[in-house]
Amino acid sequence: MNTMIMNKQGMSAEVKIRLRNYLSEFVTPHRFELFNEVVKNRTRYITVALENIYQPHNASAVLRSCDCFGVHDVHIIENENTYEVNHEIALGSSQWLNLLTYPDTGNSTTSCIQNLKSQGYRIIATTPRPSTPSIENFDVGKGKFALIFGTEKEGLTDTAMELADEFIRLPMYGFTESFNISVSAALCLFHFTAAIRQKNIDWMLTEEEMIDVQLDWLRTSIHGSEVIENNFFKKNN
Question: Which of 23, 47, 170, 185 is 20 to 30 A from 11 in CA distance terms?
Answer without folding.
Answer: 47
